[in-house]
Amino acid sequence: MRWPSAPQKSRYILPGLLILEFGCLTALFGLFGYANPNTYRSALLDDGVASGFVAKSTYTPGSTDVPLVWRPVATTVSLYLTLASFLCMVLQATLYILSLCPPQALALVQVIMLSIWIAIIAIYQAGVNSETPWFLTHSCADVYYPRNRSPCLQAKGLFGISIVLVAIYVAVGVWCVVVTVMGVRLRLKSEGRESEAGKDVELVQGRSAEEPVVDYAYQQPQTPGRVPVTPY
């Protein structure tokens, strides 16, 4: 299915969303690359323990019982998934420009990417399987060590940009559904017009067949009040 023509004001919505997705993924790739593998996760955990935001009896820095959200593997996995998302975005943008990516396929891609990033946010950033990281519930001005203020802001930035990226995936998926519905309506309308045109042609042909054929070549003009005389 090809992309149906959209109104003039709305045809730039999808390219604009793809540009926003490119910006978000670029920022996330840079932030995750800087944080990989453990630039500041352990430092933020130590700061949370020192500030009292993290229970010292529950989370001991350097132990093997540290929740997944505080482990270096969380940053590494997020970095690789960000790279995969970036490559997927470039591929789908290229196929869209070449009109080789139908809206149904693009909507399916958005569902897959949305699921992946919800999992990244829930497991590696928000820590649904453990206590929520303190930097998501407290201000970075409350850090115990001043040197951890910048890492705290970066961690908040990662979480915020990830939320924006999820919103973009939702918006692109909704737009693909809208375009698909528009295409179905246009096809049905076109089929209705062709059907009406066929009926009109059949009606005209039927009327033409019922009318008598008159040969005007052998008709003689008649003058009012005179009777034509037939020669002997």
Please describe what this structure looks like.
This protein is mostly helical. The protein has a domain at 13-173. It is 62% helix and 0% strand. Helix 1 (13-35) runs antiparallel to helix 5 (149-210) and helix 4 packs antiparallel against helix 5 (149-210). 20% of the residues are buried. The mean pLDDT is 81.
Short description:
With 232 residues, the chain is mainly alpha-helical. The protein has helices at 13-35, 41-51, 72-97, 103-125, 149-210. Helix 1 (13-35) runs antiparallel to helix 3 and helix 1 (13-35) packs antiparallel against helix 5.
Structural class: mainly alpha
Q: Fraction of residues in helices? A: 55-70%
What is the N-to-C order of secondary-structure elements (H for helix, E for strand)? HHHHH
Task: Provide mean pLDDT, rounded.
Answer: 81
Gyration radius from CA atoms, angstroms: 35 Å
- Low-pLDDT windows of residues: none
- Could you tell me how far the N terminus lies from the C terminus, measured between alpha carbons in angstroms? 79 Å
Oligomer: single chain
Total count of strands: 0
The number of helices is 5
Strand content: under 5%
